[in-house]
Amino acid sequence: MSANSTSTAAALALIADDMRGVDAVIEMRLQSEVPLVSQISHYIVAAGGKRLRPSLMLLMCGALGYTHEQRFNIAAVIEFIHTATLLHDDVVDESTLRRGRATANESFGNPASVLVGDFLYSRAFQMMVDAGDMRIMRTLAEATNVIAEGEVLQLMNMHDADLSEEAYLRVIRSKTAKLFEASARLAALLAKSSPEIEQSCAEFGQALGTAFQVIDDVLDYDGDVPEMGKNLGDDLREGKVTLPLIVAMQRGTEAERNLIRQAIETGGTEQMAQIIAIVQNTGALQATRAAAASEAQRAINALAGLPLNPYSQGLHSLASQLLARRS
């Protein structure tokens, strides 16, 4: 195990017991009298994943000294919202593989996946009410709405070879970073922290989520295929314009720009190997990693206002080691 993965594992070990508490809530709240609902819900949740969003909230709760069991409920809500977005995403993207196994839509069909995603959203909102805190409900409701807007924005941007870096970041901040931001903010709300601490938590989450997605976009052209459980270039196949492509088009020759433009606009994959080479040879990946590093540093800076303890140090490790991701 590398030093990077050891550092991240040490941070997650701090909340291992908490995560078991979250898993117990998830297991209980996935129950439904409709067998297919439980079957698909368990299928997607059992697929694993990094559980970064609930982990972020639990670490932030630890940093702020909040130990009430309500944190398990809210962490489970966060995971349900995220899982619902994955179910819907895979239908929209016509994905067949996630984390190295068949997607739910591939196994059960699109209609069932969409409807079970709706179930997870509605179950999450039932659970929010249990917290009995209007600010918590408002934060989660706003995040869910912004995520939906981000999904529509991304759909509108498909096959747009003229997409700007600003427009790309707007999608990321809506679609991915918003739930990270909400996860961190919720810990401050649960702990009844000051507005200043709440803002620091929210900024950490937003910056971490942005860095996470930017690195994810790098890995689509430079990742470890067996570890990722998907193929290089999948974003381009789906017509998604991400920062590596934007930078490659800025830096490439006219012929290279035209090749990338044609692939974006048509969804053609015939020149995939050549496009991946262009992205790598123009330094687009290094530039994109630098953008992610800037966001990771913004996250680390936001921790300055939090108490110094093993949990806040764990959050520091999550941000600093994010740049070493290979899957």
TrEMBL record:
Annotated gene: ispB
Enzyme Commission designation: 2.5.1.90
Annotated protein name in UniProt: Octaprenyl diphosphate synthase
Family: Belongs to the FPP/GGPP synthase family.
Reactions this protein catalyses: 5 isopentenyl diphosphate + (2E,6E)-farnesyl diphosphate = all-trans-octaprenyl diphosphate + 5 diphosphate
Keywords, alphabetical: Magnesium, Metal-binding, Transferase
GO terms under biological process: isoprenoid biosynthetic process
Cofactor section: Mg(2+)
Broad EC category: transferase
Function: Supplies octaprenyl diphosphate, the precursor for the side chain of the isoprenoid quinones ubiquinone and menaquinone.
SUPFAM superfamilies: Terpenoid synthases (SSF48576)
GO molecular-function terms, A-Z: all-trans-octaprenyl-diphosphate synthase activity; metal ion binding
Listed Pfam families: polyprenyl_synt
InterPro entries cross-referenced by the UniProt entry: Isoprenoid_synthase_dom_sf (IPR008949), Polyprenyl_synt (IPR000092), Polyprenyl_synt_CS (IPR033749)
